[in-house]
């Protein structure tokens, strides 16, 4: 097992280098001329300014040299400068990260609780209407376009019923709670401002629900499967024979063991969360990394979109690594002989 | 009694969800093939006053340009299904091709292909698709290329594993001893046994491809107006927020079609599990 973890850790820098190389390749095959974003249209006719700009941004070097500079910059945390915001891409991403993390965290709460509940219900009443209904709810979650569900729910709960606020992290005229974490809910709580906390929470409910529903399907499917496996085992029959109540059997005896594979999928559902977050943020005007990515892609802001993609890939790789390592540690019975890194 | 008989005759994979999936997917395929024959309004023509709510005449209302949303939704199936088919077929052709060669020949070619697979799979799909589509520029064809770039590695990995497994079977050794050429070995004796998991995976992927293609169009990187593409229509609906019916039709169409493919995929997966556990 130690060998497996070490091998995964050693492969990580190589994979990251590969990802960076792919990103460099992408930024080089684009038809858009990076100069046109740096030099204004009128100055393009002035060869001196163009040459100076080329030298300043390293565009006069050979491709291998540019590659070396690119990798060197990446190692220093420099992802380039956005054409659109004229700010370093890394700064843009950092500024928007808390909004995305807060959304993803609340979505995870919906997704995990909903998914585990649906999974248990489906396993407990296997092949009954409850099972089918639970699977349908879960499947709808992974079949719906989140950008559409978001629109419909916004219309129903915000426009038609008026129960929840419209898009955004906070009311348009309100001052966002100042604080160190950047999580509006947490910052408001830390400042003791209950009113601001409830406002921030009410803005979070819909996008977090939409996003959570999208991952619920994956989680509930796995909980159902592993609950069914566990429920067939001898120790469950023993517990039942000793007179344990059905609820006690499910929650105390079965769920504990069924959760081990589920932990992995919760880790791996990160990919679904990223996909969902990108589109959910767009609909809910959520000022996070996802809407930044979409705005960058829409305006063909190549440094920004490639920067976000690079960071997303790194986060994706690291979360998968952490999940797999955690799984190996918690469940030492699993062999990793044939698993390739 | 009659019920028990019916159950006994029904093949085990034909569950209610699978049947439902078949019906829904078949409906949309027929709709895509026959849309022009339905006698609907022209999907690109302004046929009524703009932003009319659903009525007996226009079942799903009209959009900001006075076009019939129902007609555009039905016609949208042509684009979504065509894209999904092209993307999945291309991803299978490229991925399975590279994967089969990697598994068959091994060596540096195998290493090169598999490292490329690893790197591609390291990207979150939606971000990679967006980055590639933005790099190539907006348009339906470029969006399709971006989707193929996201999906081919899955098939490469699957096919390589299959070929590696089949390669060690006895009939292959017998063929080698019998003096079969390498191409005959690969095409006749190995590949013919490798397709089943590829087919199952492809079926399950169609729904996801439709979703991501619609997402790219929604963002503005796929189909451009006035094309009746579902993602682009939802994007138009998002700008006319109070006219909910503009986005409702295309979104509901995506939901049902993807749900149909997921039901099908679920049934296929259960079938495979059943077989492999026997």
Biggest interchain interface, per-side counts = A-B, 49 and 48 residues
What is the CATH domain class of chain B? Mainly Alpha
- CATH architecture annotation of the largest domain in chain A: Orthogonal Bundle
The global form of chain A is globular
- The amount of helix of chain B comes to over 70%
Number of domains of chain B: 1
Profile the largest sheet of chain A: none
Report the order of strands and helices of chain B: HHHHHHHHHHH
What is the count of β-strands of chain B?
A: 0
What does this structure look like?
The complex is a heterodimer of chains A (341) and B (278). Chain A folds into two domains: 2-75, no CATH class; 97-300 and 310-340, MetI-like fold (Orthogonal Bundle). Chain A is built from 14 helices and no strands. Chain A has helices at residues 2-29, 34-38, 47-57, 63-75, 89-124, 129-143, 146-160, 184-190, 194-231, 234-241, 246-268, 270-283, 289-298, 302-330. The longest helix of chain A has 38 residues, at 194-231. The radius of gyration of chain A is 24 Å and the shape is globular. Residues 337-341 of chain A have low confidence and may be disordered. Chain B is mainly α and 278 residues long. Chain B has a single domain (66-277), classed as MetI-like fold (Orthogonal Bundle). In chain B, 73% of the residues lie in helices and 0% in strands. In chain B, helix 3 (69-105) packs across helix 9. Classes of the chains: A mainly alpha (341), B mainly alpha (278). At the A-B interface, helix 1, helix 6, helix 7, helix 12 and helix 13 of A face helix 4, helix 5, helix 9, helix 10 and helix 11 of B.
């Amino acid at each position: 097992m130690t060998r497996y973890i070490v091998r995964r850790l050693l492969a990580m820098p190589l994979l990251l280098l590969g990802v960076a190389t792919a990103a460099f390749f992408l930024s080089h095959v684009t038809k858009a001329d990076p100069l046109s974003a740096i030099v204004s249209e009128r100055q393009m006719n002035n060869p001196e300014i163009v040459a100076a700009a080329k030298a300043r941004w390293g565009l006069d070097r050979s491709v291998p040299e540019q590659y070396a500079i690119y990798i060197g910059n990446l190692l220093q945390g420099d992802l380039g400068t956005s054409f659109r915001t004229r700010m370093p891409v890394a700064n843009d991403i950092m500024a928007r990260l808390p909004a995305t993390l807060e959304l993803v965290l609340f979505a995870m709460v919906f997704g995990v609780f909903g998914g585990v509940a649906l999974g248990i219900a489906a396993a407990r009443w296997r092949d009954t209407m409850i099972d089918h209904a639970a699977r349908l709810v879960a499947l709808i979650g992974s079949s719906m376009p989140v950008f559409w569900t978001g629109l419909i729910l916004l219309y129903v709960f915000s426009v038609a019923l008026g129960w929840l606020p419209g898009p955004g992290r906070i009311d348009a005229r309100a001052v966002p709670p100042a604080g160190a974490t950047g999580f509006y809910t947490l910052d408001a709580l830390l400042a003791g401002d209950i009113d601001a906390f409830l406002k921030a929470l009410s803005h979070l409910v819909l996008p977090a629900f939409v996003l959570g529903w999208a991952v619920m399907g994956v989680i509930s499917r796995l909980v159902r499967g592993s609950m069914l496996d566990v429920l067939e085992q001898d120790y469950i029959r023993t517990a039942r024979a000793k007179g344990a109540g059905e609820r006690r059997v499910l929650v105390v005896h079965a769920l504990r063991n069924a959760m081990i594979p589920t932990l992995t999928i919760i880790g791996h559902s990160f990919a679904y969360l990223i996909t969902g977050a990108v589109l959910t943020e767009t609909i809910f005007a959520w000022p996070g990394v996802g809407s930044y990515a979409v705005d960058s892609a829409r305006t063909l802001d190549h440094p920004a979109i490639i920067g976000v993609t690079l960071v997303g890939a790194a986060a994706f790789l690291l979360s998968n690594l952490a999940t797999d390592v955690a799984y190996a540690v918690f469940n030492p019975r699993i062999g990793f002989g044939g698993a390739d890194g | 009694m009659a019920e028990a008989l019916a159950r006994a005759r029904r093949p085990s994979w034909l569950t209610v969800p699978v049947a439902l999936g078949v019906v829904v997917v078949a409906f949309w395929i027929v709709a895509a093939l026959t849309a022009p024959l339905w006698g609907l309004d022209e999907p690109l023509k302004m046929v009524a006053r703009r932003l009319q709510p659903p009525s007996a005449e226009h079942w799903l209302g009209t959009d900001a340009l006075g076009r019939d949303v129902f007609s555009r939704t039905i016609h949208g199936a042509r684009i979504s299904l065509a894209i999904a088919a092209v993307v999945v077929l291309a991803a299978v052709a490229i991925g399975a091709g590279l994967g089969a060669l990697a598994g068959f020949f091994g060596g540096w070619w195998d290493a090169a292909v598999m490292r490329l697979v690893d790197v591609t799979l390291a990207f979150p799909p939606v971000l990679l698709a967006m980055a590639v589509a933005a790099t190539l520029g907006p348009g339906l064809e470029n969006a399709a290329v971006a989707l193929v770039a996201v999906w081919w590695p899955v098939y490469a990995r699957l096919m390589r594993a299959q070929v590696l497994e089949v390669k060690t079977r006895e009939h292959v050794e017998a063929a080698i001893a019998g003096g079969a050429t390498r191409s005959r070995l690969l095409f006749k004796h190995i590949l013919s046994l490798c397709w089943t998991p590829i087919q199952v995976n492809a079926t399950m992927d169609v729904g996801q491809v439709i979703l991501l293609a619609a997402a790219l169009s929604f963002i503005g990187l796929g189909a451009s107006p006035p094309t009746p593409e579902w993602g682009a229509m939802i994007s138009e609906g998002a700008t006319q927020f109070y006219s909910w019916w503009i986005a409702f039709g295309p979104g509901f169409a995506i939901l049902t079609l993807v749900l149909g493919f997921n039901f099908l995929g679920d049934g296929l997966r259960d079938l495979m599990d059943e077989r492999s556990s026997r």
